[in-house]
Amino acid sequence: MEQKEDKLKEVISHAKEYGFVFPSSEIYDGLAATYDYGQLGAELKNNIKSYWWKSMVQMHENIVGLDASIFMHPTTWKASGHVDAFNDPLIDNKDSKKRYRADVLIEEHIEKIRQKIEKEVEKGIKKFGDSFDEAQFRATNTNVLRNMEKITSIEDRMRVSLENNDLEGVYQLIMDCEIVCPISGSRNWTEVRQFNLMFSTELGSVAGDAATIYLRPETAQGIFVNFLNVQKSGRMKIPFGIAQIGKAFRNEIVARQFIFRMREFEQMEMQFFCRPGDEMKWYSYWKETRENWHKKLGLGDKNYRFHDHIKLAHYANAACDIEFNFPMGFKELEGIHSRTDFDLKQHEQFSGKKLQYFDPELNQNYVPFVVETSVGLDRMFLSVLSSSHKIELLEDGSERVVLRIPPALAPYKVAIMPLTKKDGLPEKAREIIDSLKFDFLCQYDEKDSIGKRYRRQDAIGTPYSVTVDHQTLEDNTVTIRDRDTMEQIRINIADLYRMIDEKSNMRSLLA
Ligand code: GAP
Question: How far apart are CA 491 and CA 154, in angstroms?
Fold first, then answer.
């Protein structure tokens, strides 16, 4: 646990030191759980957005983009169910005065039991070596079976309590599991209460209920209310999707763990409209497609796992998360939801306008079903940053800190460094930048020794560093150093474009 916390601390301090992420309004001592993306963070974020947008919109003929406003007519949130049901069950510890999400406390307790099972399996592997049959062990070992039963029983009780809004039942489950406050260590809990997560404000100068509007808690509703606009103006045929990237706001009870859970964050969401009855086919398709999208980044296949929802949101008939192995452990990165025709039907009912599609093949009108993929941009950012942050021991005994960011996402693609600040080398270096800057974000660096400059580029994840020396002036060759292998080769300036492009373009990710 301590190691995990240390890792997160390292990532946070690295992010600040090199201009990826700063605490927001820091000169006023910051604001809880709000962060600003710095000069490199903004680049990394843009590259992640671009990877997502291209994979959705550019690579799918039947998916188009949208950019809806954050403020929406307040009835939107009545229709979507957010006014009545976008609640978290919260509980306070009377000793530490800390507030928690009751369901998260229970899920963390379940995770601890899961870890016990994994430890038991590891013991088995050590004991039996090559002859170890993991599947059989999991199916027969008494400790594993006992803990599995425990998990099932807790999950069942939690699901039933949450589905029935039985807050007393949730409280009892926390007591029965003997869950203690991580800060005070006590079981001195308050009752469980519901808390709506939407931020509200007032429109213009009119006060009162009629003028209350909300900051959108998800981008999806901007897509639903525009379903027919896009379908008609874009002559879209079902099945088709609408993609959007934008800010969302939630008054999270527990906002912590850096940019993992914030009150203002960004979502990349896509609603895929299909024929009623086809939704499970598309749900499987999008599960697989999204898993591949993540794994293509090369952050390590073992860092991903699926988690099927116990408590389905009010709009879903199937839902799962893609979880990532963050420094704090496996946590939700993306949600994939089969939202049925719930949202469109609700908007039909509340607006009195038909939101139907005429299917020429079936010769019939219907309200389409929707499969949604929803990934948090900030969580994607954290997954990339935390898994690529490495401290490596070098052959000469020294250490280097390197960000092994997938080159296509790296803020700078190349650093150009004149060996010295004189003899025309800076001018030559700038000439090279001028020829590359239309296609790649380049950094010019002439300060300190070449070794120190390499370390700086490693620390910000620049895939290539190019050194311009006296020989360059004679034969137009430069030394190019690879961030990951640290190998250096001499190449012609004319070959730079191809090398950088091959390494860092998005084609291989999107293929
Ligand atoms: N439209 C569906 C929806 O909003 P969600 O599971 O509540 O579903 C989708 O959110 C994704 O948004 C999550 O998987 C997560 O990546 C991101 N997300 C949700 N709350 C967040 C928060 N407070 N801070 C950062 N990201 C968040």
Answer: 62
Report the pLDDT value the prediction gives residue 209, as an integer from 0 to 100. Answer: 58
Number of domains in the chain: 3
* Strand spans (E) along 378-495: 389-393, 399-403, 414-418, 442-444, 464-468, 477-482, 488-492
What's the confidence (pLDDT) of residue 162? 86
Nearest-CA residue for atom 15 of ligand 1: 376
Do 501 and 451 belong to one domain?
yes
pTM of the model: 0.87
State the CB neighbour count (10 A cutoff) for residue 440: 18
Nearest CA to ligand 1 atom 16: 376
The tokens of 169 are what? Answer: 């039942």
Q: State whether 100 and 181 are in the same domain.
A: yes
| Same domain as 385, residue 252 | yes
- Please tell me the predicted confidence (pLDDT) of residue 392: 95
Q: Mean pLDDT in each 10-residue stretch from start to end of the chain (511 residues)?
A: 75 97 95 94 98 98 98 95 90 93 93 93 89 91 95 94 90 96 95 94 71 94 98 97 98 84 96 97 97 97 90 82 95 96 97 96 97 98 97 92 98 98 97 97 96 97 98 98 97 98 95 89
- The residue to mutate among 287, 374, 375, 381, having the most atoms of ligand 1 within 8 angstroms of its beta carbon, is 374
pLDDT for residue 252: 87
CA distance 342 to 81: 10
DSSP H stretches of helix in 54-86: 75-80, 82-85
Q: What is the pLDDT of residue 206?
A: 62
Identify whether the C-beta of residue 157 lies closer than 8 Å to the C-beta of residue 173. Answer: yes
Rounded CA gap, 347 and 350, in Å?
5
Note down the domain range covering 118. 87-196
Let me know if residue 159 belongs to a domain.
Answer: yes
* Residue 454: inside a domain: yes
Q: Which of 174, 196, 218 is the last residue of a domain?
A: 196
Kindly report the length of the chain.
511
Q: Is residue 371 domain-shared with residue 439, that is, in the same domain?
A: no
Ligand 1 centroid vs 99 CA: distance in angstroms?
20
Q: Which two tokens stand for residue 19?
A: 């201009």
Give yes or no for residue 161 CB within 6 A of ligand 1: no
Q: What is the pLDDT of residue 207?
A: 60
Instruction: Judge if the beta carbon of residue 334 lies within 6 A of ligand 1.
Output: yes
